Amino acid sequence: MAWVGRTSTEEQQDPRQSLIRQLERSKTALPDAWAIVCHFFDVESGRMELAARGRGRDYERFDIPIARDGGITDLLAEAAHPNRRFDVVICESTSRVARRMFENLSVERELERAGVPLFAWNEPIKLDGGRAQQILQRRINQSVAEYEAFNALETSWGGLCTHVREGWNIGKPPYGYRAKHYRHPNPVKAERGATKSRLEPDGIRAETVTQMAHWRYYERIGYAVIVDRLNADPDKYPPPEPPGGPSKARGAWSKSAVCEILRAPKYTGYQVFNRRARRSRSGAHNDPALWVWSPEPVHEPLIPKWMYDELAERRQERRGSRAGNAPNTHPQTRRTYVLRGMLLHACDRRMFGKHRDGITYYSCQPQANNRGRPDAYAGHPTTVYLREDAVLEAISAFLSDRVFGPERRELLTAELASVDDRAARQRQTERDRLQRTLDSLSQRQANILRQGETAGPDDPFTKGLRESYNRLESERKAALADLTEVDAADAAEPARPTAEDVDLLDGLPYLALNLVRAPEQLLRQLFEVIQLTVRLHYNPDEVTIRITLPADLLPDIATTAERMQESMPAISRSKAPRVTARTDAVGAPGRTRTCGQTLSRCRHSLLLRPSGHVLVAPGPSRFREPGSMGHLLSPADAPTGTSRPQCGS
């Protein structure tokens, strides 16, 4: 006979004692003259798929006094061999072969094909006669084993979820936090020294996490740039240590480490569990809908929740594009483009720079690298060109008027006064109505409960009260659902600027900029700080220019703009002309002239970032379309007698 055994390291027992017990029990069930000549056992989970079984080496960690001839896969391989050493296989129970029914039956079927019967200590061993009773008992045992496995999983899962929702940490604290231990709430476990832990900031490491998030959010730099900054000063930004300890640490930051930290939701102050399927799918990421969150923040956040959410939303913004506008490593690279990575087409593709006949363009050609998917960009023009100088003139006029101009505060205040907030007022009215309804329903339910306390359970009056209470509960849930929709609609719209937010503009100097003649290095630096994004739309031909003014970076913005003005020739220091005309922003040379689009409108958004709120200021109301934001240009605004109209702000 061959003996097969298995034990799991997750069990609350010693694998050594468990395997010895299994072997001794199997020996007691042997008929006379039967002997065990080889031993196959594993120390691993019985829920693993059969193809993955027998590859671990956990059994080497335990002093098991049983000569091991292999695992379950070795047993099946030898059973199929004509010169096998055994005729029969025995185990303590079929649950030791596998916990799940499918794998259990697969092993049994493989042995049957090889002509090797499988017996178990907890089943009758019949050498002749019918097997119906034996099969029935085996199938019952296998079903019970699978039920117990799933029941144990569900029970332990429920305990883990409760543990997390109460704010307790599971596993090693993430980088930037350390564990603060508390006495276990169960007195019996507390007497044995058991504790539970919560997270608290870990000094300089916590500051490193916050700094990485600020770099990523405010400067929109990539992981590679963040890694370079961190590794430039390892004393200020100490690198993380892997779970294996300092001996396995590389002593430097990597892009994967930065990416993992910025994607971890625990830094928002919430306790989160089940982000990865570490046992069932080798650490694969689970869908965020399966994550388990604590209802409220339970430890000090290192990354604000609103910042984490926005970083998650724009995670794919710069995918496939390196940070900055440094020259490409390709040997044929001859020039750089100041708006590289900042100019998007309506198809959500990033436009790339081209230079021809002394003119710089940005182009979108989806068919060039979209072979095999002709329907992915149906209706998209073959080639779209946009002139760089026209875009820079529009940006220059916008910054001169709205950001560095002497009338910037008055312009923003006037625009805020003209914003149509009827929808917001209607939502507030609806919210007040729903809240009054909820208060009324709760009060009526409380009255019903007081009346039901003195009524008998079989009284018809009690039955009527119960029906009334259930009806009110249904109405209450419906009102809560409506209130949730109203709150979601409010959250989807940007918050309106306050007087304090408008005061942020006073932190910038009054400057007159002409970006067309500014040094490219300073231009790029300014555009990165203000997070410039330019989007060219499909139809009508329209450009949206969007910038953000983070309160923490206003001194950097002011310094960069002043250096830019000082570096420009005296003739260019005059204020950029404020014109409102149509411009031919495309006009590509040669055959590409027929493939372009005309820039006829520019739409701008000014975002102030004082404390995590996105604030949008639209353009002048006389140019604003209903429901849109921005300063829209019209051909009717073109000055008389101009042969080449210029693009305005």
Describe the structure.
The protein has 649 residues and is of the alpha/beta class. It contains 16 helices and 18 strands. The chain has helices at 15-28, 72-79, 101-113, 132-165, 187-191, 204-219, 223-232, 255-263, 305-313, 388-403, 408-418, 422-453, 460-492, 499-502, 520-529, 554-567; strands at residues 2-7, 38-43, 89-91, 118-120, 177-183, 195-201, 272-273, 276-277, 284-285, 292-293, 343-345, 352-356, 359-364, 384-387, 533-536, 543-550, 602-609, 615-617. A 5-stranded mixed sheet has the order 11-15-16-17-18. Strands 2-1-3-4 form a 4-stranded parallel sheet, sandwiched between helices. A hairpin with a 2-residue loop joins strand 12 (352-356) and strand 13. Helix 15 packs antiparallel against helix 16.
Strand order of the largest sheet: 11-15-16-17-18
Biggest β-sheet: count, sense, barrel?
Answer: 5 strands, mixed
Mean pLDDT, as a whole number? 78
Helix content: 25-40%
Which regions have little confidence, pLDDT < 50, spanning 5+ residues? 570-602, 609-649
Percent of sequence in beta strands: 5-15%
Distance between the termini: 89 Å
Structural class: alpha/beta
How would you name the oligomeric state of the polypeptide chains in this document?
single chain
List its salient traits.
649 residues; alpha/beta; 5-stranded mixed beta sheet; extended; disordered C terminus
